[in-house]
Amino acid sequence: QVQLVESGGGLVQAGGSLRLSCAASGRTVTLSAMHWFRQAPGNEREFVAAIAWIAVSTNYADSVKGRFTISRDNAKNTVNLQMNSLKPEDTAVYYCAANCRGKNCDYWGQGTQVTVSS
Fold first, then answer.
1. Is 81 exposed, middle or buried (0-12, 13-18, 19+ CB in 10 A)?
2. Residues 112, 8: contact at Cβ < 8 Å?
3. pLDDT tens, 38-82?
């Protein structure tokens, strides 16, 4: 089993920045890729970004390209999401997940709230 714990959410004004972190523990040797999803009220959960656990490979949703950056620290078993130029439409609960096939993931974190005020 792998446990994922997110941190770093909060309230920020439009144009501001936040950095989310996801700490993985447990059987981290089973990890192949880490993902961030988000879910706004009344909306379906949507993909935000992903990074391979070993390879140098990242992927982003079109809506966040050029503004968000996903990175990892294998020594600390953490994955970060640097979010810049935030917009009110980025407001959502952000979830860290691991080993996903589409939205079907082996592991999920509990989520962290990000609120962007206009």
1. buried
2. yes
3. 999 999 999 999 999 887 899 999 999 999 999 999 899 999 999
Cα–Cα distance for residue pair 103/81, rounded to 1 Å: 18
Which helix (H) or strand (E) element contains residue 99? strand 92-101
Q: What is the pLDDT of residue 56?
A: 80
One-letter amino acid at 52 equals A
SS3 28: helix
What is the C-alpha separation between 108 and 113, in angstroms, rounded? 15
**Would you give the end-to-end CA distance of the chain in angstroms?**
40
Give CA separation, 52 vs 12, 40, 60, in Å: 29, 25, 12
- 106-115: b (≥16 Cβ within 10 Å) or e: ebbbebbebe
Sequence-distant (6+) residues with CB within 8 A of 61 are: 46, 47, 48, 49
State residue 53's pLDDT score: 87
